[in-house]
Amino acid sequence: MNPAVNEWPKGVLHLAGSEQKFSLMRYAPSAETEYFVQHYWIVRWDLRGREPYHQTVIAHPNVNVVFEKNCTRIYGVGKSTTVRVVQDHGWVIGIKFKPGGFYPFLGDPVSRLTDSSVPLEEVFGMESRGRERFILSAPDDQSMVSRVEAFLVERLPEKDPNVSLVHEMVLSFRDDRSVVRVEDAVRLTGMNKRAMQRLFDRYVGVSPKSVIKRYRLHEAAMRIDQGEVADWLDLSTELGYYDHSHFIRDFKSIVGMSPEEYRKKVEKVAAPGQ
Questions:
Q1: Does 8 fall in a domain?
Q2: Which residues form the signal peptide (predicted)?
Q3: Which residues fall within 8 angstroms of residue 211, CB to CB, at 6 or more apart?
Q4: Among 169, 170, 187, which Cα is nearest to 178's?
Q5: Residue 26 φ/ψ, nearest 5 degrees
Q6: pTM attached to this predicted model
């Protein structure tokens, strides 16, 4: 059985306002697939008789394979926010690969998938409709995850040591708030800047700078969503920004609005009657 992953889903914006629109469950991979896979996720919704809901997400530096009715695809890393329209009723299941974890399946630089998606057939060389129906017809979450895992296990590539290297680097960027610039990442890892950029282009699909920025903004958005921010200067300093205006620019470049505008929108969405 795949245990559920219980943690705040960073990157899902305006989470308080989305709680009545859909459910999100995440499940850990098995020992067979955990070298490549971060977790599996399932979203279910029932908006019959209600308005469609637009959910905004700051993409993580991960490739996702998503099984969805008539729309099963492989999604590369987005450079900014993406919007998913949830309407009527349904469910999807996704495989969220570790940063770098999809490269051994693809065999090409993951950057060719950045800001785009491709059909399952393009990478796995198979007709996807039958497999899509089989997976989505599972009677419960655990059965659906088991069917997705079986699909993946049949196609597991050889383990590539760079997958572990990239994953560890990305985790260190996420957890060490002193890493705000690529130069900080170079200092932390000891890797040449150009070599790091080539590695990330090939295995992650976006630059080290982009990875660092989005993790800082995931944290900022989560803190705002949870109502924990009292002062923008304090927040930017806690996230490792020495220049407050740098934080504001980064936030706006990814989210599309300033932190203050985002907070006002969160408060509006969460207000009774909204």
A1: no
A2: none
A3: 61, 99, 170, 173, 200, 204
A4: 187
A5: -125, 145
A6: 0.87
